[in-house]
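Database export, one record per block. Field names are fixed; values are copied verbatim from the stored entry.
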Amino acid sequence: MIDKWSFDALELQTILNEVETFSELGKKKRRNTQPFLPGDEEELRQYFHKLDALISIVRDDNLLQDRLKSEISHFKDISSSINRLGSKLDISEIFEIKQFCYFYQRVLLILTKNNYPYLNDFESLMNIYQLLDPEKLNTATFKISNLYSKELADVRELIAVNSRKRKILFKKHKQDIQEKLSLQRVEEKIVVSRYDKATKELLESSNLFLIQEANFANTIYKIKIPLSVTEIDEIINGLLIKQEILSSEVIQQ
């Protein structure tokens, strides 16, 4: 390790401060960078050649510089998530890993297209990315795909079917109220002026509405949920709990 006096005398910190970074990971790398020591000459030469090769590719191509900056800016420090591999990861950690793989592969593709001569230094993360992108959507986002679990896919389909059924039943319920009370339009919530006593009396006497809120200007009525809709809500809530359990099981696989 170089001593502090030599570090200060060589103004290495000043040089490091001139290095512009474009990502959280780059800032961490700059903070932890250590100078080469006597005996590291060959390693230093190799480092210089690699850096010089990259500079020669981007030096006169502003568009390429901007593209690389854009992709690199998405790099986050995912070391904590990587260190937890083999443990129970949550969905946000899996998202971080997939996002890193996505932008890493994009940077690698740019370097490949521009004939960067040291590509062997980069390990492809495509296998990991494909594992996290089974539907081949080619995005940086992550979702728990139905392809991971048929049981999960079936539960999601049941949620969708019952949600559509609920929507139809509730729409029919509103239409029935509209016809029964001869109202022009019925929404889930109806705002009635405090001075409109006739409408207030109509809604309250119908036993089809609940008072949700009343203030100095208006009374807000909410449609009572019919039993047929309540029963579907209970089914959907049960399915949502099951979906959460199955999703958690998929993540831990």
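Remark 1: DSSP finds eleven helices and three strands in the chain.
Remark 2: The radius of gyration is 31 Å.
End of record.
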